[in-house]
Specification:
Layout (H helix, E strand, L loop, with lengths): L14 E17 L3 E15 L8 H9 L10 H12 L4 E14 L6 E14 L3 E14 L1 H6 L6 E12 L5 H11 L2 E2 L6 H13 L4 H13 L4 E10 L8 E8 L4
Antiparallel strand pairs: 1-2, 2-3, 3-4, 4-5, 5-6, 5-7, 6-8, 8-9
Length: about 260
């Protein structure tokens, strides 16, 4: 049969990224407590396409992924990227995996147990050498220092998101990044709270008011002091409860040249 994708293209325009997006696929992630955790990810895979090729072979992305379906651990991404480069004759290969990760948490007073969900991302790029980024989005609570200072009977608070992205020179647990964010918040979030727990987290938040600026600085200091992390970006976003906008702050810092 004629290979249409390999036909020559005369428009002389290379394509930066071509591939498949939003493929749902089971993956295995290392879990600090239970050793491994099985979850379902959204997978994006793409390569660059030289100007003289009309198209890429989309089926080969799925074939490569399926070849690893019984051992699709996050640490296999480097191998998959190399196979993408080789089979698709590309100079650059990229793979992005987004997945929900669950951590068992205990309420602060009752110690009621529940599973808390965190959205994670693992992105790998291979050109001459591999480049990997690990990320996690951590929902937390922040209480406004300005509102607390001005108000006689309380202060407004809101649910917030802390987004952490890191490059590392050694293994870092997802749980560790979650802890960096939650330790810097007015209060962590829990999937299950009893009345005595609600009292405790409300009082904790009131005692620890935080601007978005405070959040990104406190998390950044923890990442700065972690010798395994060579680059980081941290964002904090408040879904404001009394304003018609969100508050936002970001710090990105290459601690060394990654």
């Amino acid at each position: 049969m004629v290979d249409i994708q390999n036909q020559k293209d005369l428009r002389n325009l290379p394509i930066d990224r071509v591939g498949v997006k939003n493929l749902r696929y089971p993956v295995t992630v290392l879990d600090r407590v239970n050793k491994v955790q099985h979850t379902v990810a959204w997978v994006n895979m793409d390569v660059n396409l030289p100007h003289h090729f009309r198209g890429t072979h989309m089926s080969r992305f799925i074939e490569i992924l399926n070849a690893h379906h019984r051992e699709l651990h996050i640490d296999k991404i480097g191998t998959i990227l190399q196979q993408m480069k080789d089979r698709l004759k590309a100079e650059e290969a990229r793979m992005e995996i987004r997945f929900p990760y669950f951590i068992e948490k205990h309420a602060p007073v009752s110690e009621a147990t529940s599973l808390m969900e965190y959205q994670c991302i693992y992105c790998g790029v291979l050109t001459h050498r591999p480049d990997f980024i690990l990320g996690v989005d951590v929902p937390i609570t922040t209480l406004c220092p300005c509102s607390k200072e001005m108000s006689v009977q309380g202060a407004h608070n809101q649910r917030s998101i802390v987004r952490i992205r890191v490059r590392t020179n050694a293994f870092v647990w997802i749980e560790e990044l979650v802890e960096y964010a939650e330790q810097s918040a007015s209060s962590p979030l829990y999937a299950l709270l009893k009345r005595e727990d609600e009292k405790a987290v409300t009082e904790q938040a009131y005692a620890r008011p935080m601007f978005v600026e405070d959040m990104v600085r406190d998390v950044a200091l923890k990442l700065e002091n972690d010798k395994r992390i060579v680059w980081y970006a941290v964002e904090s976003e408040n879904m404001e409860s009394i304003h018609n906008h969100d508050a936002y702050a970001r710090i990105e810092n290459p601690k060394t040249i990654p």
